[in-house]
Prior knowledge:
Blueprint: H1 8-26, E1 31-32, H2 34-41, H3 45-53, E2 65-66, H4 67-77, E3 84-89, H5 93-100, H6 103-106, E4 109-116, E5 125-126, E6 129-130, E7 132-133, H7 137-144, E8 148-151, H8 156-166, E9 170-173, E10 186-189, H9 192-208
Parallel strand pairs: 3-4, 3-8, 4-7, 8-9, 9-10
Antiparallel strand pairs: 1-2, 5-6
Helix pairs in contact: 1-4, 2-3, 7-8
The site of 1,4-dihydronicotinamide adenine dinucleotide has 23 residues, from helix 5 and strand 4.
Amino acid sequence: MGNKNISMAVIRRLPKYYRYLADLLSKDVQRISSKELSEIIGFTASQIRQDLNNFGGFGQQGYGYNVEALHKEIGKILGLDRKYRAILIGAGNLGQALTNYTGFRLAGFETIAVFDANPKMIGLKIRDFEIMDSDNVEEFVRENDVDIACIPKNGAQLVADKLVRAGIKGIWNFAPIDLEVPSDIIVENVNLTESLFTLSYLMKENLEG
Ligand code: NAI
């Protein structure tokens, strides 16, 4: 199924559907109406029907959605029916926290190596990973079938250029810069500070009524 025309707004909601459906599955809920789903997720029932119709609509009139089928289908749409091999560049505070979090592997994103530029860090261990010299990252990506790289701030563009040359397909970018990459390389920016700014705005609105 080609999903090229699906809007980013819908795509951004899919992980949330996936997460809530996984939760329902773990509670042995077998089917759910768009109205019930809407009460849990917080999107309107019509929004939910509209979103899911983008992919052919999995619901049946009078029955609602089969939770397991919908979860599986959204997983497929998100590309979660496969595993991803990831590397992490920059083994400082953030890199260590990300490496130590086991949830990513459970979700299918396996870190296979961690790199740093600082000679004092190279050779140290985070979990089972011996930190490798980031000078060797290009060669590593070429030889190890790496799908995703998570990258730091210092020299992020230079690091990205190396990764692209080596054949990386996706970049999970924590650096607060807009990376320039060819159009077939996917960059997903993560910015916790922006998220805090949103929190600040909503709290301010709340206080001001
Ligand atoms: P840190 O100073 O503890 O660690 C950075 C590590 O990356 C150091 O070990 C350093 O040697 C290594 N490094 C830097 N440039 C490198 C390069 N080009 N190649 C290989 N290794 C390199 O810093 P921390 O607290 O872990 O933050 C890392 C970066 O992540 C910062 O630039 C910060 O702005 C960013 N950050 C982004 C967040 C987000 O939500 N997007 C949240 C927190 C931090």
